[in-house]
Amino acid sequence: MLNSLSGRFLMLTAAFVLLAEVLIFVPSVARSRVNYLELRLEAAQIASLAKLAADSLDEPVEQELLRNAGVYNVVLRRDEVRQLALSSPIPEPIHATYDLRDRSAATLIRDALATLADSQDRIIRVIGSPVQQGGELIEITLDQQPLRRAMIEDGLRVLALSAVITILTAALLFLAVRVLMVRPIARVVGHMRAYAEAPEDARRIIVPDASVTELREAEEALQSLQTQLTGALRQRARLAQLGSAVAKISHDLRNILASAQLFADRLEETEDPHVRRMGPKIVASLSRAISLCEATLAFGRVEEPPPRLTRVPLAAIVSEIVDGERLAAGESDISFSEDIPAGLTVRADGEQLYRVILNLVRNARQAIAASGKAGEIGLSAEEDDEAWWIFVADTGPGLPPKAREHLFQAFQGGASKGGTGLGLAIAAEIVRGHGGRLELRRSDAQGTEFAIRLPKENAQLAPLPPLEGEREADNTPGSPRGAEAAE
């Protein structure tokens, strides 16, 4: 009960109401004291006026007037003359004097608390202003204990009323919280539990119907989350089926490509210089295709390895990609530009970085070719203290709104008709595997620009190997001949 939302709200409400009543109690007791003393002053003034009207009174009558007024002595000041109107013996010396004519609230509260704290029999003097302009001032002496008892009685009444108000307020707030908050929250929790039992079942997605704005916003957010999760689970199932099929195809395709690679190796023996120049590129492409098939098979077994970080020259990767895409562009009016510092090396997996940049450049080439207009694809790079940046920009028609909305989601971010959107999804996943990010800088009628950020902090995990010899004699993993040697 106390650990529930309504229980804690009940306790907090009671505590705050009691605090408010305490803050009310102190001024109330001070006001009660002032009222009591003002009544005594008024009664004493009436008694003194009766004495003055009668010129002379018997001693018993005078004492009765003082008892009815609740005072020992009454002093009036009228017409600049101070006059003892009524008097009787005072049992002990006067303990304190209080002037009610010009007292601040703080002083009245202080005097009230002092009166409550003093349980001794005391005689006090009180000075005030007569009512109805009955003089300049009136002064009385009286016992403090009756005043203290009256203050305590008034205080108890205030506390009793406060307790009743607290109980009623807390009960009403408790019921309100139960109806307006706890029950709707319990309903949302129930929907979450039901959805957790079968998240693939779209019928279990919550339908927002709360009347409270905040709860409705929470239900709408939960509905959006459940809808996305259900869609992701369905897509995951489809991808699992697709992955199984692709793994089977990749197994046979790898064997075919391995045979093709053996034949391509013979191209290096020809005397034709053009063939000898293109032969290594064919071998490199076949090697990458074989590696990609092997990676696909590993992915199908959920064994995709993490990137093998080495220091790779970025200019060589970009140049190889541009050479291949120029051939693919054929007679199309598409130009390529490279602005890569000659000595720039990045910490990355060379083959995976090749796939990322190739996906971006190929998408740009296909977009420009589909537009039927001339265009340019530019690749540039730079570095700062925290990261390396690689930029791929084109002057194509830009991405359509649907593609931008689901840019890095497989089967949803395709920019061209019939496209699957797998290229960008794969590229983004590879960059995330490096600890970086792939982002869309701009996409409009003037073209599109992507940026690859590779953080440098990974470079501190291990000392950088020397650049010379990393691809020496083309026998290292990631190079065309290295892949061939690895076979």
Describe the structure.
The protein folds into three domains: 5-168, no CATH class; 200-305, no CATH class; 307-486, 2-Layer Sandwich (Heat Shock Protein 90), CATH 3.30.565. It has 487 residues and is α+β, with helices and mostly antiparallel strands. It has helices spanning 5-54, 59-69, 105-117, 145-197, 213-265, 273-300, 314-329, 350-371, 401-405, 422-433, 480-486, and strands spanning 73-78, 81-86, 94-99, 123-128, 137-143, 310-313, 334-339, 345-348, 375-383, 387-394, 437-444, 447-455. The longest helix is centred in the middle third of the chain and has 53 residues, at 145-197. The relative contact order is 0.06. The protein contains eleven helices and twelve strands.
Question: Quick gist of this model?
Answer:
The protein has 487 residues and is of the alpha+beta class. It has 11 helices and 12 strands.
Helix and strand arrangement:
Blueprint: H1 5-54, H2 59-69, E1 73-78, E2 81-86, E3 94-99, H3 105-117, E4 123-128, E5 137-143, H4 145-197, H5 213-265, H6 273-300, E6 310-313, H7 314-329, E7 334-339, E8 345-348, H8 350-371, E9 375-383, E10 387-394, H9 401-405, H10 422-433, E11 437-444, E12 447-455, H11 480-486
